[in-house]
């Protein structure tokens, strides 16, 4: 259907809403008519709901019985291309159309009634009474700089009633204003001179630029610091020169202050930003600007894929291997794969950038489906860090200590030279386990099949599954004996304690996502570290991601064996990627770097592969293993998660499905399970998992649909299908 399809008043239209009805409903076009794709308000029973004009009505219903569309919203219509993408993505991920619409529009702030579009931001006055609630509001505003919020959003973020905000507005401490109407974004200048590229970089950039204007996927692989960002910014420049829009997806967008500054330096203006830290008023503006073609470049988190770009020519997925691209709640999808799908609908180019690509992308490149460009050397004088294992069996470690004498020596050495050292431990909190020394009880979460993790800075026990926390009890919850609860094992906070003991004069920074109230606070700390404001940086996974710390020359991995436990077939790949990413933090500037991996099994093939640096050999071995097991990326896989308040019905449904596998057998698929899911209970809901494995070309979704349709799932039970699961 052509884009500019118009329905005159009284014509039958079908409208898709986000209500769980399953299919679009028929209405009559309103007075003044409406476009295909228009956002409209329609009556549904006694209510009014928002929907999208999805097509022509099917004529089956008596026109006299149809109700007219109530009004057309002042929002650019959803274009054909985006609707097709949502449909296709819904088929792939086995998601209903209403759920897809909800996913694509939920964070846009589009549907607020027009009257509520007043925004609230920091004012010049002072509140006459400084209450706790008022302070909370002012803190949210302060943490977000000059950003303006809608009333309900601000109240919710601050955890106060809207009246508190109104009160502040009266006093002048908060300013109330009409939302400025859709200011376009400043123009980026693609012709500003970029950095002078090295020969390797120049070749890579030219190859990417040659690919603009048509659909195609390129894996841009290069060690950390090789200049991948510089190179793909050239592809962005070329895209902009052709008058098309570009999207750069980042995994941890909240940490991208440095990245935005680089874009601004390259193009002379800031791009549009899209992530959870951006206010709804701003997101609403960006949504419209994307539709009108008035924003050239958007830097965003995975949901930026659903922005209604008018003329999208390029999608860059940076750190494409990152697991946070997989959305694990609601609609289960991998933004990297969906970026490729989206691009295929608008003749856009896709660049997947990584120092440690996913095996999926590596295999697609090896099979010739994706182009591949390698940047072999780090830019300029900087060299890749040397990597060595510290054999922990040969170190003398005191009890409740985790830093080996060898590593202590290396850290001291760096500090004495005025350089920085980083200690990496992928565990938040103080200690992963709290045990009662009297009865052996381990404190677990009341709602999850998970241990409570002590967070000493917060003085609480926290469940990392559901987020529930409680004060650390004086006595054991099981036997009641007091004073016998003991932390077992290290988390970053405990490591910080050891660091303080061993390096009493060093300035220490701890980077762990839970220690920062806001993204802004984290950004500030990162900037301080980059300036040299710390000697030792202790961090969890967040330090593995693209920060430039020029003085950092040593990375010590406290427990390189951590990720190798468990039966997940992806464990080797993940550990390999994480260790190489972390090590890549060292030696970014002129000073060479070293990475030291503490391990009790340095002869383990994965540890050896990490140390040897022979990546292709590692990928080939990993690929052979997966091929032999017929699992992704060489076979297809789906996870089926049954969850509900009681365990018994879940197994009943699972067993029933296991008895009726005819639709699966027809495509040669195999079923494993039902079995308790890797985390068998979360937020009070039990979880049972099944895995379905099929050959690469098999029509998996159709078979799954026919298979699950055979059983009736009661309301209390949720059946979720996870195509291409992260763990198997
Ligand atoms: P990657 O994305 O591969 O980690 P970057 O693009 O971030 O690499 O480059 C690493 C560092 O080297 C950055 O500080 C970048 O500005 C610098 N750099 C890379 N290429 C060049 C170049 N051609 N000229 C000047 N500086 C460069
Ligand atoms: Zn929990």
Q: Helical content, roughly?
A: 25-40%
Main β-sheet description: 7 strands, parallel
> How are strands sequenced across the largest beta sheet?
13-14-12-15-18-11-19
Q: What class would the helix/strand composition place it in?
A: alpha/beta
The percentage of residues in β strands lies in: 15-25%
Q: Count every helix, treating DSSP H or I runs of 4 or more residues as helices.
A: 20
The whole-angstrom Rg is 27 Å
Structural topology:
Layout: E1 6-7, E2 12-17, E3 25-28, E4 34-35, E5 39-44, E6 47-56, E7 71-72, H1 80-93, H2 97-105, E8 118-122, H3 132-143, E9 149-150, H4 151-158, H5 162-171, E10 174-178, H6 199-210, E11 216-222, H7 228-241, E12 245-249, H8 257-267, E13 272-274, H9 280-292, E14 297-300, E15 312-318, E16 326-327, E17 333-334, H10 335-344, E18 349-354, H11 359-366, E19 371-375, E20 386-391, H12 405-416, E21 420-424, E22 433-436, E23 452-455, E24 460-463, E25 469-471, E26 485-488, H13 492-502, E27 508-511, H14 519-530, E28 536-539, E29 552-557, H15 571-583, E30 594-599, H16 605-612, H17 615-629, E31 635-644, H18 647-659, H19 662-666, E32 670-682, E33 685-695, H20 700-708, E34 718-723
Parallel strand pairs: 11-18, 11-19, 12-14, 12-15, 13-14, 15-18, 20-30, 21-28, 21-29, 27-28, 29-30
Antiparallel strand pairs: 1-4, 2-3, 2-6, 5-6, 5-7, 8-9, 8-10, 16-17, 22-26, 23-24, 24-25, 31-33, 31-34, 32-33
Bound molecules: adenosine-5'-diphosphate and zinc ion.
Zinc ion binds next to loops.
Family: Belongs to the helicase family. PriA subfamily.
GO molecular function: hydrolase activity
Binding site for Zn(2+) 2: 445, 448, 463, 466
